[in-house]
Amino acid sequence: MRTKLIACVAISGSLLLPTDLFAHGGQYRGPGDVVPPGGGGGGGQSGNPGGPTTPGPGGPTTPTPGGPTTPGPQTPTGPTGGGSRAGPTTGGPRGVQLGDDLNQWQFWWEFNKDPYLNLKARVRAGSTTTGSDDFLMGRGLKSEASDTLAPSERDLKGLVIPALKKVLDDPASNRDIVSSCMIALAKIGKDPTILALFKKHLSDSDQEQRESAALSMGIAAMQEGVDDLLDMAKDTSNGRKISGRRNGVDFRTRSFACYGLGLIAHRSRDLAIKRKIWDSMHEILSSKTRVRRDVQIAAVNTVRLLNLDATQEGGKELRDETVKFLLEFIDNDKVFEQIRAHGYQAIAKLMGRNDTKSTIKNRFLKTLKTKRQRHWIYQSAVLALGEMATPEDTAACKAIQDYLEKGKNQQAKHFCAVALGQIGGPQNKNFLRTRLIKSRTKTLEKPWLAIGLAIMDFKAREADKSREVDSTARDIYEQFRGTKSPIFAAGLAVALGIMQDKDSGDVLLDRMMKYKNQDEAGGYVAVALGLMGFQEAKEDINTLVEKASRRPTLLTQCSIALGLLGDKEIGLKLITRMKEQNTVAVFSALAQALGFIGDRRVLPGLVDQLSNKKLQPLSRAFSAVALGLVGDKEELPWNSKISVDLNYRANVETLTGNGGTGILDIL
Question: Against a cut of 0.70, is the pTM above it?
Fold first, then answer.
């Protein structure tokens, strides 16, 4: 079950209708028209250098995950082969709802925000609980010497994992509860017996449970499951037997199996495991038979996740082999451009800034200067250069600057600001600053320029924690003051938050209160105040939380802001509110906020709600989502490995979109 975290955007003076609401706990980061016509269901051949790859028609439809839905923006997606949705409907918006202008800054932020928020680390840093919380903690949690907000081994192994396994094994649990429990158990890990539980659901008659089981094996980084996942990803006879699909493993399960393999490879240090996974992805991408775009894009992103260490014996050789293939792959005009676009990001992730001879960067520069490329290619080339180039690569920097000024594709131009921020250097900083303060620069572009400057400052601060706030923050502040559009002002505010410019805090606080009835803009300004650590905002943000009982977007964002500000009581307040709510939309927002904050003291209350069969199944499923988020073995969300630096515009339904059914829509 996938619940969306979507941002509420006012476009042309009117609010968009809320989009679909699911469970496994998702955060839909883009509307349906991210998927090009036929994108999810289009055939499209594989990446074999040779072999036809004209996009073909969608294949047979398969059931998609169920869960309650709400009316969403009616954007055309073309055939996707996803099937219809089941489940009751709910009348209210949920989470952060993004509008259909994909060029706006919010989309980039929702895909890339995790390293900047780093919420759990902030909440738990130096945290100690004070006083007695027994009346809220209830059963199961005992005081430990450290008494930190992070869950202990005893919390997870003694309370949370047994509860999730019990509910997962209950025949009365519906698909939403089952898939949510599997994902939660995978995120927590710490129990090798869960592999058998996941395998049992690989052959389930329900599509969502099959794909959730395959993905869970990857999230849990279970190397013992590699062979089964490989067979399903390649649609072998054994894979069909494992998944119970005599006529072939469905494309969604194949795609999710690929992503699961990528996640295993990313966490593994075993080069043999990485080699085995690479060989299978190479086989899929070199196949001369028709392969769905979803599967091919999943295979490319699995290669992107290999996380190869060139200093490890055999690591450089494997990296060079994968990059050589990908360079041929992105030049193969028989492969659909939407698929090839992901190859640029895979190469950039594998190489990093180690292309010392600039051979690859020069090829990408040539791509950027070539006319009549599809827009996906320009976007991906820019993003890849942002990951690979250095300030000394003057040709690359100049090419990106030129495209920002003269390029045709709006999204690629906006990505140029991000890329220059990632590359850094005084020349790029001066270019972004000069363009930001120009009166002729479009208002739509200014948040992107500010975010580019903020990225540059963020990276510099990572290297020098004592660094003063960069002088360009004053320029962004002046632009913020003069911007009338709430959502564009919110983008400038987020940039100031990333830069930790507390001097602008008072003005941002005033603006937050001015936007208090505009959930999206007000919520983002609250997050900005949290990012900069402006403690004076805590009281007003708490007031907004108290009044946001029927406004899940604002409730979630303000709760995150309070977590960033070190409010150690927000988790306890939210669990109390959760017990009083019976609205699914608000319940889901509370569950996600609790999970983001990661306070161990909420675990007993969540376990009680998960186990309470009198609650709606979806409410119980969201409790499982929250338990997985609180107990997650990783600091950042598992799918941030995929979403950060991704060209989300070259999308298919198993990645994100189509009503929130992709791997990036799962919390």
Answer: yes
